[in-house]
What we know:
Helices cover about 55% and strands about 10% of the residues. The strands form two sheets. It has a five-stranded parallel sheet with strand order 2-3-4-1-5, with helices on both faces. A three-stranded antiparallel sheet has the order 6-8-7. The chain has three domains: about 1-20 and about 215-295, Helicase, Ruva Protein, domain 3; about 40-210, 3-Layer(aba) Sandwich (Rossmann fold); about 300-400, Orthogonal Bundle (Arc Repressor Mutant, subunit A), CATH 1.10.10.10. It is α/β, with parallel strands linked by helices. The longest helix has 21 residues, at about 280-300.
Amino acid sequence: xxxxxxxxxxxxxxxxxxxxxxRVLQSDYSPDSLQHRDxxxxxxxxxxAPSLRMEKPSNLFIYGKxxxxxxxxxxxTLTELLGVxxxxxxxxxTIYVNCKLxxxxxxxxxxxxxxxxxxxxxVPSTGLPTDEVYKIFYSLVDKKKLLFIVVLDEIxxxxxxxxxxxxxxxxxxxxxxxxxxxxxxxxxxxxxFVDNIDPRVKSSLxxxxxxxxxxxxxxxxxxxxxxxxxxxxxxxxxQGVVEKCAAIAAREHGDARRAIDLLRVAGELAEREMAxxxxxEHLDHALSTLxxxxxLDIIKTQxxxxxxxxxxxxxxxxxxxxxxxxxxxGSVYSIYQDVCKQTGLRALTLRRVSDIIAELNTxxxxxxxxxxxxxxxxxxxxxxxxxxxxxxxxxxxIKSTLELx
DNA sequence: GTCAATTCACATGAAAGAGACCACGGTCTAGTG
DNA sequence: CTAGACCGTGGTCTCTTTCATGTGAATTGACGA
Length: 405
């Protein structure tokens, strides 16, 4: 057996892979040159340039959907800026924080704690009063004369969870500092986000704004070609694969990250088959694999109550005999109560379940719309958002977490 | 027939509570010289 | 005498509950033509 296995590994190593440099297709890779973002790079550079004279650059706010190159562009531009600063001996420091990462920077306290740790110091992950942490941060920043550029990626996430007080406090930092200057660069996926924040914060944080529009199919194609030249062995991509990949991604609001993922998975599938070219079938297959993994992964990582709610939705729809029909909050909740009784789980209130349904909706697992039936009341109309081919798998996942049969 | 008021069944907001974590400082205990 | 174990306190964070308020259109009922 182990002989077989080692043979397999040998064969795997020897088989001509389609990849030359797979890292280029990984999500954390940032390319040396950016395509179709010259204009934005120029604008960011113009806004940030005063920092090289040790003047405070305007706070900058960047919007754009996922995969439009916001993060990469910002990182790219700041790296260049830091290069110049370094060669001139200017004390400029950039800090990059992704506010979406759970347990890293998704609350006010943790954000500041994170900034502190970026500055090479440490505070406990919990236990201190928030203003204490602020004080530590201030003293740390103000110790030397420095110019900080703080990049807050996915800032909409932070505000949604922690409220806009955070931003207000951050924008006030400069008035507390004697020596140093802090400039904030916020990145948001949500275009509507700014409408919901405190006007005071809005004016001070959004001194400058920049919008990243989605890539169109042609631009995506250019990007994919560029990457695939480095990533794949010459000639391993069949005609039309990149074009189709670009077209798929363009259809889904021009998400370049997704397009690149798609290409990578297609390559992995081809590699697994020991094929030495990637064809359209691989791409189609990759598309469904990616989608399947995403959905199953989301479901698997949901808390018990979420899974129970989803299970109740399944049951409610099954009672109606047709899974593509829709049901309403009330019937889901009564079934949910039965399920809880059955499993011995403590049943939550309708209020909470209603929120859970709303959250499942934003995850895309279900589609729920609020409708009014006039005197019949107002409620959510709920449908499953999971493709039928995955129904059995999701039910199995849920049943195993609920220890049901 | 028309129009405003009513009503239903939740949606949505706000505030507050419970319980899990964690750090810190003080006290107790056991081991060491 | 000292290091480590063990509390109590005070803080944050997440998930919930409770209480209150909001909402959109079918229904109702008064009113006038």
